[in-house]
């Protein structure tokens, strides 16, 4: 066995164990008894210790020094192994295990505090999570920006400074478009009624199938916070139902299907290898957002969804054009995951700035709720009414995902670039979308991006798929055109 072969065998076993660890997280969100939280924390910590030991096995360094790549794929495999090995070796095993233990416990405490509108119950454990992540960031930063060190785990090569510049260019046009639309004479109607959750879940399965989700290798369950989990031949998603808001279920499902089909469509030859999954969270988010928004909320597909819903629920009180407006209606709201396309990124930018301040030490956890509420009032013009609609709404900080939030907006930027390229390459996609079939669009995304897994760095992958370096301009142009039409601007 060559050094390369030995290294890849080790990585395959590591990837399999990572899948088992991920399944523990999936179970915690869907099936686990509430009283098992403390024990699950110990289980997660034990698994983290096993994974950390395998990730820092000194033989990896020897194999990397001796391995000779036979082709460009092997070269990319070695690049990713070296990057992960060097990063992981900087974090002590005890710290990695403690982060896993505390974040597992914090997730349950966050859920309880959110349900009880009791932020004070969550702050102590959040303070502990933050302290651990800051300690980790110091280990990883090697004298650089600690926040960049955390961001790099989710979007390799990105920095807060470059994202801040991009986000600064987004904000003025987003705010201007929002204000023009909300002040327009033409305002879309709101969908009214109560919609049986069982019927919502049935339609959500149709939506998943329409966007290419392979149910032989996946399943849909319900969770408080929808998510996707797994890779290769076991990729699971969750959604949620709200009786008066079926769009919450439908577009959460399409969003998570975007994540899931990315994982399902990676070249099987890369399975359980360092390249056998999505390359970054920004690219991952580009898939979920282009599925959800440019494709799923477009006039062609909403025309089909209108007919499907009337078949399940009866007359909706609006025609297909009115339904398209209702799906895309701008409105006031507190929840990021329920925000319209125009305002969604404003929610992300709020979180990006606040978590940078937390990691940088200029904002204390004790002051978090006040800082959130003040910033929300400034950005949106109305006050947060409850903690669950404020800083308790997202699970990310509870589980230690500092540096994750900006990848949501970066994913929207990537999606804008991809959609421009997609419509140029496949100009007849609306014809199939109008019949409830997204196959031409999803095939292009599979062939142009998804099949490569982690073979190329994020920005290079987007540039290869689109022929251009990613910028915010295509996203802004798409939003301006779409909402000018809907609102008669």
UniProtKB/TrEMBL annotation:
<feature type="binding site">
    <location>
        <position position="285"/>
    </location>
    <ligand>
        <name>Zn(2+)</name>
    </ligand>
</feature>
<keyword id="KW-0121">Carboxypeptidase</keyword>
<keyword id="KW-0482">Metalloprotease</keyword>
<feature type="binding site">
    <location>
        <position position="259"/>
    </location>
    <ligand>
        <name>Zn(2+)</name>
    </ligand>
</feature>
<keyword id="KW-0862">Zinc</keyword>
<dbReference type="GO" id="GO:0006508">
    <property type="term" value="P:proteolysis"/>
</dbReference>
<dbReference type="InterPro" id="IPR001333">
    <property type="entry name" value="Peptidase_M32_Taq"/>
</dbReference>
<protein>
    <recommendedName>
        <fullName>Metal-dependent carboxypeptidase</fullName>
        <ecNumber>3.4.17.19</ecNumber>
    </recommendedName>
</protein>
<keyword id="KW-0378">Hydrolase</keyword>
<keyword id="KW-0645">Protease</keyword>
<dbReference type="Pfam" id="PF02074">
    <property type="entry name" value="Peptidase_M32"/>
</dbReference>
<dbReference type="GO" id="GO:0046872">
    <property type="term" value="F:metal ion binding"/>
</dbReference>
<feature type="binding site">
    <location>
        <position position="255"/>
    </location>
    <ligand>
        <name>Zn(2+)</name>
    </ligand>
</feature>
<dbReference type="GO" id="GO:0004181">
    <property type="term" value="F:metallocarboxypeptidase activity"/>
</dbReference>
<feature type="active site" description="Proton donor/acceptor">
    <location>
        <position position="256"/>
    </location>
</feature>
<comment type="similarity">
    <text>Belongs to the peptidase M32 family.</text>
</comment>
<comment type="function">
    <text>Broad specificity carboxypetidase that releases amino acids sequentially from the C-terminus, including neutral, aromatic, polar and basic residues.</text>
</comment>
<keyword id="KW-0479">Metal-binding</keyword>
């Amino acid at each position: 066995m060559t050094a390369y072969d030995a290294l890849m065998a080790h990585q395959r076993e590591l990837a399999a164990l990572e899948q088992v660890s991920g399944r523990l997280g999936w179970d915690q969100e869907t099936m686990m008894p509430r009283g098992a939280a403390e024990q699950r924390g110990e289980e997660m910590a034990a698994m983290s210790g096993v994974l950390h030991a395998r990730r820092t096995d000194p033989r990896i360094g020897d194999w990397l020094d001796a391995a000779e790549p036979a082709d460009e794929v092997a070269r990319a495999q070695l690049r990713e192994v070296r990057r992960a090995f060097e990063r992981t070796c900087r974090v002590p095993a005890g710290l990695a295990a403690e982060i896993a233990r505390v974040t597992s416990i914090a997730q349950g405490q966050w859920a309880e505090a959110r349900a009880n509108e009791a932020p004070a119950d969550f702050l102590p454990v959040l303070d502990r999570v933050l302290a651990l992540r800051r300690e980790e960031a110091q280990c990883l930063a090697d004298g650089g920006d600690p926040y960049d060190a955390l961001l790099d785990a989710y979007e390799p090569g990105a920095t807060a400074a470059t994202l801040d510049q991009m986000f600064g260019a987004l904000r003025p046009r987003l705010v201007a478009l929002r204000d023009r639309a909300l002040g327009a004479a033409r305002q879309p109607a709101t969908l009214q009624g109560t919609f049986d959750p069982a019927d919502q879940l049935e339609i959500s399965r149709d939506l998943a199938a329409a966007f290419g989700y392979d149910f032989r290798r996946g399943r849909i369950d319900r969770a408080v916070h929808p998510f996707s989990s797994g890779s290769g031949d076991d990729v699971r998603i969750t959604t949620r139902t709200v009786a008066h808001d079926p769009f919450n279920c439908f577009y959460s499902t399409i969003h998570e299907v975007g994540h899931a089909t990315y994982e399902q469509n990676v070249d099987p030859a890369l399975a359980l290898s360092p390249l056998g999954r999505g390359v970054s969270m920004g690219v991952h988010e580009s898939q979920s957002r282009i599925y959800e928004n440019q494709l799923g909320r477009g006039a062609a597909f909403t025309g089909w969804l209108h007919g499907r819903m009337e078949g399940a629920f009866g007359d909706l009180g609006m025609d297909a054009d009115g339904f398209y407006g209702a799906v895309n209606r701008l409105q006031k709201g507190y929840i990021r995951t329920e925000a319209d396309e125009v305002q969604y990124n404003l929610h992300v930018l709020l979180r990006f700035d606040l978590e940078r301040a937390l990691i940088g030490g200029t904002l204390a956890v004790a002051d978090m709720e006040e800082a959130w509420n003040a910033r929300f009032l400034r950005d949106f013009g109305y006050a947060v009414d409850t903690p669950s609609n404020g800083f308790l709404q997202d699970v990310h900080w509870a589980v230690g995902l500092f540096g994750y939030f900006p990848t949501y907006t970066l994913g929207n930027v990537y999606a804008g670039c991809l959609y421009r390229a997609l419509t140029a390459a496949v100009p007849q996609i609306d014809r199939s979308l109008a019949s409830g079939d997204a196959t031409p669009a999803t095939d292009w995304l599979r062939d142009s991006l998804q099949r490569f897994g982690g073979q190329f760095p994020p920005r290079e992958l987007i540039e290869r798929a689109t022929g251009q370096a990613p910028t915010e301009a295509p996203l802004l142009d798409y939003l301006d055109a779409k909402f000018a039409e809907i609102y008669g601007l």
